[in-house]
Specification:
It is a single chain. This protein is mainly beta. It contains three helices and 15 strands. A 14-stranded antiparallel beta barrel has the order 1-2-3-4-5-6-7-8-9-10-11-12-13-15. The protein starts with a helix and ends in a 41-residue tail after the last helix.
């Protein structure tokens, strides 16, 4: 018996040494690389006939918009606490966007306006209840249909987020964005009631208001309202601006979309979403750069054309691709909040939303036949599901 025990001890020792010597490569970041491909359309609507001759010239208005955006982690800095457990971390992410906007006016030639940019965002998790979010998104706009100059802009956001509990969060900050058809600085005020992976109400002024209802682990339904718009450089090839005959002017659009969205998780790396609803508060404004050059930091206030367009339906379709492995963050409310913050402020001040592709889905119910899974659950990476 002594000899058998000795051999058993030797075997266990070898096995343990072999296990410890395995160099299992762990993920470096809490964020995956995510790419969103988005298509947005509004049908043609006749512009209301007024005394403005440009209304008669433009005739009708529709929108076709295509957007490619991404974010990817480039650095994660973990700071251990006194008991050597990692609770504080800083995340640096690279963001980017490319948009092609086709404002369809039946009375003039078709223009294709592009927007492209690469930005940087930093997210700091204090390890307690607060998260800081800082984003800088420089971008350029140009009318590529006709020869026109490139115009450069910068969108930015700073937000402080406080997680009172898993069911309640509030945020405060400031944002500079062009989604409202001008260069506005606005306060950022938000709160969420409910868990992120269960039914919740999220109000993030002035970005979005949504009621999110996960149906199961692969399907989510939401009711939302959010702004859609931007500022773009527009060629004066059609001589719309006749006073100074400038080569370009600023085309701006703004609207409020209220509708329903369905997110489908087809696999761990591939999501699809479909949204439709009513587009209201539609506005199109043309600004001259020369007329607004005296106040380079203030919103534009001198325009040569402004029109409130009729309300209409909108249709939105998108694909979300997720790549790479992420560190486990099971029940870490600050990491979950950091991921939600990253989703709330679109990459590149864009008009897309990835639907919380990195947030945990609603858990499946465990049946009796799955009870044995409890014995091995510590071997499973929670973020794979």
């Amino acid at each position: 018996m002594v000899i058998c025990a000795l051999f058993l001890f030797i075997k266990i020792t070898k096995a343990q040494t072999t296990f410890d010597s395995l160099k299992i490569k762990q993920p470096k970041h809490f964020f995956n690389t995510v790419i969103v491909i988005d298509s947005y359309n509004k049908p043609k609507k006749t512009i209301t006939d007024t005394l403005d001759f440009l209304d008669k010239r433009l005739k009708s208005y529709a929108i076709k918009q295509y957007n490619l955006s991404f974010y990817t982690p480039i650095a994660t800095i973990n700071k251990p606490t006194a008991d050597s457990t990692v609770t504080k971390n800083t995340h640096l992410l690279l963001t980017g966007t490319f948009m092609a906007l086709l404002p369809v006016f039946s009375g003039i030639s078709q223009h294709t306006l592009i927007k492209a940019g690469v930005g940087l965002r930093a997210i700091f998790n204090s390890g307690k209840k607060s998260v800081w979010f800082v984003d800088a998104s420089p971008f350029m706009t140009q009318d590529v249909t006709y020869k026109s100059k490139t115009y450069y802009r910068l969108a930015s956001t700073i937000v402080y987020s406080y997680n009172k509990s898993e069911k309640f969060n509030w945020r405060i900050g400031i944002t500079k964005s062009f989604l409202w058809g001008n260069r506005f600085y606005a306060p950022f005020i938000g709160f969420r009631v409910g868990r992120l992976n269960k039914a919740n109400l999220s109000i993030q002024f002035p970005r979005s208001i949504s009621i999110n209802l996960p149906i199961n682990s692969n399907f989510k339904f939401s009711i939302y309202t959010r702004p859609q718009g931007g500022m773009f450089n527009f060629s004066n090839h059609d001589s719309l601006y006749y006073i100074n005959n400038d080569a370009t002017f600023h085309f701006t659009r703004y609207e409020i979309n209220t509708g329903l969205r369905f997110d489908m998780r087809l696999s761990n790396n591939f999501n699809v979403y479909i949204a439709t609803g009513i587009s209201t508060k539609n506005n199109v404004t043309f600004y001259s750069e020369r007329a607004n050059s005296n106040y380079p930091r203030l919103p534009y206030n001198k325009y040569f054309y402004k029109s409130d367009m009729p309300s209409t339906l909108f249709f939105n379709f998108g694909l979300v691709l997720k790549f790479g492995k992420a560190k486990s963050y099971y029940n870490n409310k600050n990491i979950l909040d950091a991921i939600d913050l990253n989703n709330t402020i679109d990459a590149g001040d864009g008009n897309t939303n990835n639907g919380g592709v990195q947030l945990p889905s609603k858990a499946k119910k465990i049946t009796k036949k799955d009870a044995n899974l409890n014995s091995v659950q510590d071997l499973i990476d929670y973020n794979d599901y």
